[in-house]
Amino acid sequence: MLVGDSGEFQFTGAILGIPHPTGYPLYTLLGKAWSLLPLGTVAYRINLSSACYMAAAVALLAWLIRQVSAAGAVDSSPALFSLWMRRLAVLGGAGLFAVAGTVWAQAVVARSYALNALLLAGCLAALWTWWVTGRRAAGWAFAALLGLSLAHHGTTAVLLPGYTWLSGAALWRRRGRDQGAARRRWWAGMVGALALGLSPYLLFAYRFVFGYTYYWGNPQTWDDVLILARGGPFTGQFFAYPLTIAGQLSRVMFGLDQLSLQFGGVGVALGLAGLLRLLLDARTRPFGVGLALLVAGNFAFAVNYGIIGHIYLIPTYLCWALFMAAGGLWPLDWAANLRRPGPRGMLRIGGGLVVALVALLVVPGLAAARLPAQDRSGDTRIRDLALTTLAAAEPGARIYVDWESLCVFRYYRFVEGRRPDLDLYSEDPRDWAPGIARDLAAGRAAYVGGWAGADPPAAVRQAYRLERVGLVYRVLGPAPGE
Questions:
Q1: Structure pTM?
Q2: Partners of 400 in the β-ladder
Q3: Which of 317, 395, 400, 470 could form a disulfide with 448 if both were Cys (CB 3.0 to 4.6 A apart)?
Q4: Rounded Cα distance, 75 and 466, in Å
């Protein structure tokens, strides 16, 4: 059981509710399917979905690394050596992404970022296939995945310049193949696939028209629904930092620091080398430019977003893993252009050792070092505290809590049907102390939790005697002297 946004996601799927902006309709619909699995609690099933989404993203990334590295290969090494070096580069690049601290942390909790990574990897795989083969089905698959991405996470908008470039590159390769009716069928298929991908948005309308158990903000008009869908309450967080040279340089340094935390300084340099390698090679240049635009859009948004911006860098990390694999293989490709066998052999062996070191030692070493911090399999603290509160609370009691704890109690109410008699209040904390006074005067039991932290608001702590009961505090009465 988790608090905050994760706690909300753990129950909205089960009841087909609408979570906080931007509403995440695709995540909710998939969450409903996951909630039906006969495995553990509903909360566990939704957490498990993130692990599966991220594992699938890693698998698609591995496939993409293999395809891109093969397209740019000029290595004339013996076939077996070259084959194993490229396999190790796939393992190393995908493995570094999988064990990156932020990526791993989001793979074990019920949040939107693992599915977002999977959709990005799916879009890139479809775009690569479309660009290389020109197949209509790959273009339609990309259009459908793009629609699903937009229906899942609003930050897909910052990736559109990169997607537009990659789509244009694929269309340029197809130029002249379709004429007349064939072209019209092609574009009709693209529009239809995109519309199909966007269809999860219909959940907003369905719930608004036919009623709901939970709809964030309790919309009263269609305008309210649209505000939620476009993330209205959070638009003020976009570019929350000064748009000055000094301000933006500090944000760039923040982003590079986050990138270094995931992959180390060597990984940052290796990724830059890999991007350069993709851009210099005419065979991979169009795809490299598209990836660079994707990273630029995501990076600029994430480092300037006002709330936990580092989590939004996961798309950059996924692309960076591909860059690092390309950078690791560059010496092998470079060696093929050397005429002298001595330097060629030394460069080939040195490059091979680096690739093998990363895949066979660095990735397992990082996984072992980071496992204790990422392992949450035995973390039942929030569940135990919440159940203690629910078991102890008097009938009809009112519980004043912030968003973090509110989602926990809502999970037990909506999913497990526990204590529907309790009145949950999570509005302006300045109203808590007067509200508690009215509750006590009316003989009603009152409980209070933390606000933006572990402690209740200062006005409540000063005015009342409190006793810890699970996740919150029982209000025993006025403090001495009050």
A1: 0.93
A2: 425, 448
A3: 400
A4: 71
